[in-house]
């Protein structure tokens, strides 16, 4: 049994891991490729938006994309970069050019060799306009990104493959942490069957990957996605024979997961917030309860260019009106803690406690003062959208009531399935506030600041629709400059100082409204399986390390 603990991430420790790979170590190979002892691991989830590695951006899609594909680097559960298919990663003195050597002779599940060209293909495919990928911005620093985004090119001018095991990446701007980004699923290699520069629905329905698992049939929408062990996997082979993901009704998914675990039909489950105390009391003595403080953060996302939250004063009014302590104690029963930052406490060197002054304590007088300045008059309607079935109903309702009681506004709650909510956030008519959460894709505070707030992460078309994770439409040139400069700074202390300054700038603008730091709670069938002692960096079960107990 693992109790709740703080994640032990040290950004500087990444340097140690990278130094080892630059010397050619850590190829991940071993004589013992793992013993397959079979077993079927069953879990429930909502319908993902996509499982295509170049497009996957939400929890279920990322879980499956990472099971199907393996890239250059990965992350340990506690946030250290570790090599996967990369044998080395080196940069020039200015951090503008990176060279990767990849492990030779690994294959996709269709038998095709995974070579340098397959990586170049996968990256260009994910960044191309035709993919309409919300995670394409992870490639924004590579030369030729703009041409892929506007559809005028089909390859990165900055990515070359001198030989089958070498990838050279030239950046448009210095990035001393670029290697960390290659742990993202968008940086996966793809086989020749994947189409570049055109819509590729077929591949997205049944991706052909190089990961520890492969598709068992095609995606049965709103029913199931099944995986089977990939016996041709080039690294440590998975032990499980199959993974079965049952796709649940989005309105009641978390409760169905919980009920399914109790009935013995699921081996892993999230826990509805009202059931946390009951679940802990029942399953902790059985060693089936799991708790961990993670890198995830929860926010109220205000649409910054339209509607009632299009000004800083209105956003400050909303933040001051929220009583986070009361919700943490009442709704979350003490299982979550209030947040006062954008960058999580999991990054101790970058963490700036109480940076959000309006988040520290509810202040009715200031909430009303800023509401008047920001045009939030009594009776103003604010739409509050959230995704159903994931345990958000109770705290969203609590915030809505506090806003109505303190500000006199009318909050219109709007529950949707998760893909529907994400799509609406991107639309030109998006307005009001949204339930929003973010977990790091790679271990650096930049992975909160750049995706969520940099203008390069907001590709807005002529109609006002956006692609990318800057859903608040935050656009501050000074903020962008700080992030860009920090990326190119080798000295860790200087880089972190700039990240802190940028976070304060965004917080002063109230670009995002922090609510709660994230602690994760799960039920796990430890009586049936080994390898359920942790969750991975993305807060998912580590499928490739799970084995059935004999």
From TrEMBL:
Disordered: region residues: 26-48
Signal peptide: 1-22
Pfam families (UniProt xref): SBP_bac_5
Record's keyword annotation contains Nucleotide-binding: no
Entries under PROSITE patterns matching the protein: PROKAR_LIPOPROTEIN (PS51257)
Entry superkingdom: Bacteria
Domain Solute-binding protein family: 82-459
Keywords from the named record: Signal
Name of the featured protein: ABC transporter substrate-binding protein
């Amino acid at each position: 049994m693992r109790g709740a603990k703080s994640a032990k991430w040290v950004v500087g420790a990444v340097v140690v891991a990278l130094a080892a790979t630059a010397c050619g170590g850590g190829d991940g190979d071993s004589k013992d490729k793992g013993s397959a002892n079979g077993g079927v691991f069953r879990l429930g989830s909502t319908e993902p938006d996509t499982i295509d590695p170049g497009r996957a951006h939400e929890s279920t899609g990322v879980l499956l994309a990472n099971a199907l594909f393996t890239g250059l680097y990965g992350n340990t559960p506690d946030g250290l970069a570790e090599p996967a298919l990369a044998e080395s990663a080196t940069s020039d003195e200015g951090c503008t050019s990176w060279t990767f050597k990849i492990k030779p002779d690994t294959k996709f599940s269709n038998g095709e060799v995974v070579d340098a060209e397959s990586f170049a293909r996968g990256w260009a495919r994910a960044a191309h306009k035709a993919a309409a990928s919300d995670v394409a911005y992870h490639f924004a620093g590579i030369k030729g990104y703009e041409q892929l985004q506007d559809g005028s090119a089909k390859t990165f001018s900055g990515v070359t493959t001198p030989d089958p095991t070498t990838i050279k990446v030239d950046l448009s701007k210095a990035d001393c942490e670029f290697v960390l980004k290659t742990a993202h699923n968008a940086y996966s290699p793809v086989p020749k069957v994947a189409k570049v520069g055109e819509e590729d629905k077929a591949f997205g329905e049944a991706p052909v990957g190089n990961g520890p698992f492969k598709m068992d049939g095609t995606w049965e929408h709103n029913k199931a996605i099944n995986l089977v062990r990939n016996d041709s996997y080039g690294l440590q082979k998975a032990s499980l024979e199959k993974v079965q993901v049952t796709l649940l009704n989005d309105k009641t998914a978390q409760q169905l997961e919980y009920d399914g675990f109790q009935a013995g039909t699921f081996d892993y489950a999230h826990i509805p917030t009202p059931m946390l105390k009951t679940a802990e009391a029942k399953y902790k003595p059985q060693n089936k309860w799991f708790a961990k403080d993670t890198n995830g953060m929860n926010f109220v996302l205000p649409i910054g260019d339209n509607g009632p939250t299009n000004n800083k004063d209105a956003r400050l009014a909303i933040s001051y009106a929220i009583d986070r302590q009361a919700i943490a104690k009442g709704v979350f029963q003490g299982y979550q803690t209030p947040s006062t930052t954008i960058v999580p406490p999991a990054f101790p060197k970058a963490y700036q406690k109480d940076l959000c002054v309006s988040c520290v304590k509810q202040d009715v007088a200031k909430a009303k003062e800023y509401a008047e300045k920001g045009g939030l008059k009594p009776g103003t309607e604010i739409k509050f959208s959230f995704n159903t079935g994931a345990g958000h109903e109770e705290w969203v309702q609590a915030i809505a009531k506090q806003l109505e009681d303190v500000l006199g506004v009318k909050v219109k709650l709007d529950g949707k399935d998760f893909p529907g909510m994400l799509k609406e956030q991107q639309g030109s008519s998006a307005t009001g506030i949204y339930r929003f959460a973010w977990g790091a894709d790679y271990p650096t505070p930049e992975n909160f600041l750049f995706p969520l707030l940099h203008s390069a992460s907001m590709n807005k078309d002529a109609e006002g629709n956006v692609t990318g994770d800057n859903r608040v439409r935050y656009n501050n040139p000074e903020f962008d400059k700080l992030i860009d400069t920090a990326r190119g700074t080798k000295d860790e202390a200087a880089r972190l100082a700039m990240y802190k300054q940028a976070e304060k700038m965004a917080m002063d603008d109230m670009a995002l409204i922090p609510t709660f730091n994230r602690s994760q709670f799960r039920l796990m069938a430890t009586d049936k399986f080994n390898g359920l002692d942790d969750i991975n960096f993305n807060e998912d079960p580590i499928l490739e390390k799970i084995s059935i107990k004999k």
